Amino acid sequence: MGLFILRRLGVMILTALCLTFIVFFLTNLYPNLEKLAKTQGNMRMTDEEVVRWLDVRGYLEPLPVKYGQWLGVLPGYVGETASGQVTGRCISGELTADTAPRFCGVLQGDWGYSTVFRDGVWDIVIKRLALTGKLMFWVMLLMVPAALIIGVLAGMREGSKMDRSLSTVSIVSTATPEYVSGVILIAVFASSAVGLRWFNGTATGAMEDATFRNFFLPVFTIALYGMGYIARMTRASMAEVMTAQYIRTARLKGVSFRNVVVKHALRNALIAPFTVIMLQFPWLLNGVVIVETLFNYKGFGWTLVQAAGNNDIELLLGVSVVSVFVVLITQLISDIGYVYLNPRIRVT
Questions:
Q1: Do 319 and 196 belong to one domain?
Q2: HEC per residue, 168-210
Q3: Structural domain of residue 222, as residue ranges?
């Protein structure tokens, strides 16, 4: 198992480097850099002024060099403005060209500076990630038990009325995207047009003080979409297990149907859904973009939209790093958990 984890960690590091390099390449295309220069400098800049602005800030260096500086494995750039001011990646605040460190990248904890929020990228990412983490916690708490119950009930008696009814509900919830179900829920339960007004149509207040009234709609909107997918996977796995030979043998020995389901079928039926559940974490982290924007909940997904819409390169890179990290970690946990749940798998 130890060697298996080490190999996985090696693949994770290589994958993270490849994915972050692709994002770095796309965000550092010259049109994006030109837009950044004019946004931060002057919209009436000439082409020569744009090149000068980018040059003194290290944006025109070769891509591998810039990527190494951003990672922190190469010394940061040093430039000089037209007024004689020395600039550099590691030069900020009270740090001068003589006192600034040579290396200041992601590996050293320097994630850059957000041009939109006027704050350090690391501080922004941690704050917004905590807000989305709170949202994800309540979504998983609602989604996973409900999906497993629906899937197990549907798969226990394949082809029954209960199976067909619950399967239909699962398909409808999965086929309805969040931006549709969210708008419908707001129109029915939060809009003055219908008159119910049971919940708030915005979740901004939930950032500081989450209550059932201001937090239920975004939680239920996300859970409703993911619930159907997990339920369908659980139903298919449960239906397959219920037709296994050892289940038939247990029934012939007189074991009650309840004990057959709980003691014999349930654990084996949860092997496939476990992987699906673990994959919900990266989906939740990046899939909440629509819901957080719809309900004005300023979490991780909302920050991603702001960074992309305002060409905030450093913040966009920081968000991408966190997203890659979460995806790779959840996949590693999923692989390890799958080995423990399925004793037929041997790890060498």
A1: yes
A2: HHHHHHHHCCHHHHHHHHHHHHCCCCCCCCCCCCCCHHHHCCC
A3: 121-341
